[in-house]
Amino acid sequence: xxxxxxxxxIDAKKIVFVTGAGISQESGIxxxxxxxxxxxxYDSMQLATIDAFYNNPKLIWExxxxxxxxxxxxxxxxxxxxxxxLEKYKEVVVLTQNIDGLHQRAGSTNVLELHGSIxxxxxxxxxFKDEIPASFESLPPKCRRCDNILRPDVVWFGESLxxxxxxxxxxxxxxxxxxxxxxxxxxxxxxxTLPVYAxxxxxxxxxxxxxxxxxxxxxxxxxxxxSAKALPNLMKIFEN
Length: 240
Ligand code: BJW
Ligand code: ZN
What we know:
The protein has helices at residues 2-11, 22-25, 38-41, 44-47, 50-55, 57-73, 78-85, 102-106, 163-174, 194-200, 227-235, and strands spanning 14-19, 91-96, 111-113, 116-123, 129-131, 150-154, 178-182, 204-208, 221-223.
């Protein structure tokens, strides 16, 4: 099995990764739907929708601030590093649903953040956007341009993905030789359609996930282990 992936990777010109919360699990960041997942503990509709935010902006902000601190203290794991390392040998694009910035901190240079970023803020009214300062005076923070409340620059349920990012993600999925799908349950649309675009254009699909996903039967290969174990192993084929 390993030899067949090795051949595929060595021949590939462009490799696209589609990543989700599972790739950061070994950095100590909880997933959403797994055993210790956030949506097992909290109701997603009470925390990850614009209605929930307007209902209680302070609560939502406190939740994001707690997660931001955890993410700030986390480090990229060998899965993130292996993807970054692969840029030495191949054209690599990372399409991530994660908002944690760990791919970039590991050194990946071509990352499209489909669901936004926890380190950015945007205004609920005007087009002000910025990086989050070290700390806020009070929550929810106010826009310095129009004095309305700011929100985390992330994509909640029922909201569109950033149009330019999504359009580029479809292009990347259409034009890759190999798509490696790591650490995502593939239940959230539209990100879960990316492997379909790749498959329609004859890309090889490889899944890295200890559990099955709704698309497992479409994969050319499924590695049923964690990304911090599987991805560095895959990259060993380029050594020597
Ligand atoms: C490991 C591992 C290890 C563990 N190594 N692997 C009905 C009403 C309204 C909307 C909808 C509806 N029906 C469908 C929709 C659309 C909706 C949707 O898909 N909902 C489904 C849940 C049903 N999608 C949207 O609303 C999206 N927008 C949209 O569609 O716009 C058009 C539209 C507009 C209006 C109405 C309808 C449509 C936006 C989706 C935004 C998702 N936002 C979140 C929160 C982001 C901010 C934050 O973090 O706070 O994004 S939700 C959450 O899910 C987060 C993730 O990015 C996303 C995906 O989760 P992911 O990454 O796959 O994680 P998990 O936990 O699900 O899976 C982890 C996997 O890793 C597991 O498989 C493990 O086995 C594995 N694993 N350890 C490798 N060590
Ligand atoms: Zn504003």
